[in-house]
Amino acid sequence: MSDLNLPTWFTLSRFVAVLVFPIVYLIFDRPLADMCALVIFVAGALTDYLDGQLARRMHLESRLGAALDSVADKTLVIIALAVLLAYFDARAWMLLPVVAIIMRELLVAGLRECLGSVNDNILQVTWLAKFKTTCQMVAITLILLSEVALSMHEILLWSGVATLWLAAILTTISGVDYVRKAIRALRPSHEAD
């Protein structure tokens, strides 16, 4: 229970956001659903920043916190992307980057699970992975905002879609890097040289 500290509670709150995010579209009509989803998503994205900052400043970093943080980020992004595909106008332009992002996130999660028993440090989060997560969250925020700030709908929507494509490219590059590291780690020791 000592791992359930303030940063970890922030991380756990992101799972609540994941559950509530799609429900607002079942309960409310649009654009109220979009406004609620925007607030929920931005709050979840902010907890991603806060939990890491607090953990480092308070010296409360833990393996549980790191594991939950990674899963919470991926889950929040994947659920938000699924909702965007279901409800938003530009879904034809979003399909390919969304598929690329989801494939990469599931692949890296599987590789981390497989490598957990081999070496914890092989698939550590890189600056590129952090940047792609930021791009994903900015893209989703812009697309949600496009339905709230209707006077800027087109600009925000297409800025969000462009950022989503950038996020998909960065996501793919970081995914390839993780796969390369995983292959090297999983190679039998006599083949490693």
Distinctive features:
6 helices; mainly alpha; Four Helix Bundle (Hemerythrin (Met), subunit A); 193 residues
Description of the molecule:
- It is a single chain.
- Helix content is 79%, strand content 0%.
- It is mostly helical.
- The chain has one domain (6-186): Four Helix Bundle (Hemerythrin (Met), subunit A), CATH 1.20.120.
- Helix 2 (32-57) runs antiparallel to helix 5 (127-146).
Topology:
Blueprint: H1 6-27, H2 32-57, H3 63-87, H4 91-115, H5 127-146, H6 153-186
Provide a brief overview of the structure:
The protein is mainly alpha-helical and 193 residues long. It has six helices and no strands.
CATH class: Mainly Alpha
Distance between the termini: 43 Å
CATH architecture descriptor text = Up-down Bundle
The poorly predicted ranges are none
Rg (CA only): 18 Å
| CATH topology-level fold name | Four Helix Bundle (Hemerythrin (Met), subunit A)
User: Structurally, how many domains make up the residues?
Assistant: 1
Q: What are the secondary-structure elements, in order, as H or E?
A: HHHHHH
Q: Bin the helical content.
A: over 70%
Shape: globular
Alpha plus pi helix count: 6
> Would you tell me the structural class of the helices and strands?
mainly alpha
Averaged pLDDT: 84
